[in-house]
Amino acid sequence: MKFNCMRSDLSRAVSNVSRAVSSKSSQPALEGVLIKAYDSALSLTGYDLEIGITTNIGASIEEQGEVVVSAKLFSDIIRNLPEEIVTVETDERLITTINSGSSEYQIVGISSAEYPELPRVDELEQIKIDASVLKDMIRETVFAVSDNMSKPIYTGSLFDIDPGVLRIVAIDGFRMAIREEQVESNLNTKFVVPSKTQQEIIRLISDEEQVEMIVGSRHILFKIDSYTVISRLIEGTFLDYKTTVPQKCTTEFKINKRLLASAVERMLPMTGEKIQSPVRANITADEMKLSCTTSVGRATDSLSISAIGNDVVIGFNNRYMLDALKNADTDEVKIEMSGSLSPIIIKPIEGSSFLYLVVPMRLSAES
What we know:
The chain has helices at 7-17, 71-79, 131-139, 195-204, 257-265, 318-327, and strands spanning 2-6, 32-38, 41-47, 51-58, 60-63, 65-70, 85-90, 95-100, 103-108, 125-130, 156-162, 165-171, 175-182, 189-194, 210-215, 219-224, 227-232, 251-256, 279-283, 287-294, 297-304, 308-309, 312-316, 332-337, 344-348, 354-358. The protein is an alpha+beta fold. It starts with a strand and ends in a 9-residue tail after the last strand.
C-alpha cells in the first residue's frame, strides 16, 4: 500500500475516528485505525465493538492495500509532521513508513485480517433531520443520561419517533430531560442510543448539513457529511416517561432562566462533592426565597415572582436544577409544581420543545 495525501485532512480524520478506538483491548487491532487505500479514496475506521466511525478522504493512491496502525502513535506522528504533503507506504511485512519533508517514521502495522468487521445494518427505517436540530436536541438532553451500569437501558437516550415528531428522552433516576422537534417522517418507532454515541455525533456535526439515521434491529447508522457512525442500540424496556410527568400542577410561575440560574449558583459555595445538601425554595405569591444550610455555613437569596396557586416549600439538588436551566433553549421558562414531594417541571412558556423534570429532595426542619 502506498498513498499521498494532505497532512491536515489525514490528521483530522485520524483524530475523529480514533475516538471510537479501544484504549485497552485483548485484541491489539482494536487499539488501531484501519486504513484502506483503494481507487482514489482513503478510508479510515475506528471501532471498539460498541461504536464504529468511518470516513473517506481524498488521496493519490499509488499502490492499493490496507493495514491497521496504532491509533495514538499514528495520530501523534501525523499531527507533528513538518510539511503538508504526507506519503504513507506499507511493505509486505506491514512495516509502515511515513514521510513528510525531512521527517521519516517507521512503525509496525497489523494485518487488516485481524480487524473485526463492522456490523451490517439491515435498513428497517430511515429518517433525515437537520444537523443543527439534532445537535441541539442531543446536547440539551444527554446531560441527564445515567452513568449507573446496573440499569444499562438508562445509559442511553430514548429516541421516540411518532409521525412528524422526534422526541429524545434521558433519565437518570433523579431528573428527566425531553426535547421535541417536528420532523418529516411517517415512522412510529422507539430505540435507545448510548450516551457515548450521542457525544460523538455532537462532535462530528457541522450545522450546514442533514443527518441521515438508518435504524436496524440491533444497530443504528448515522451518516454525517463524510463520516459514518455505527452503534449498537441498547436493549431493554425504557420507562414510560409520559406517565412520570404530573398532569396537574398546584403552583406555577414564569421566570427568566438566567436570573434563577444565577441565584441557584450562589448556593453552590455551601455544597461540594462531600456535602450533599438540598437548596430550599420557599415559594409564595410574590417571592421565591432560596436557602442552603450545611456544615460550612448558610446562604440565602430571593427573587421576585408572580406565582399562581399554592405556597410551597420544596428542596432540590442545585446542580440538577442548573443543568436543566442552562440547557433550556428559551430565555424565560415556566416552573410547575404539585406540592413538596412531586417533581419540579421546567418547560417553555409556549409550546412543548423541551421539558425538564427534577426530583425533589427531602428537607430537614429549618427555622
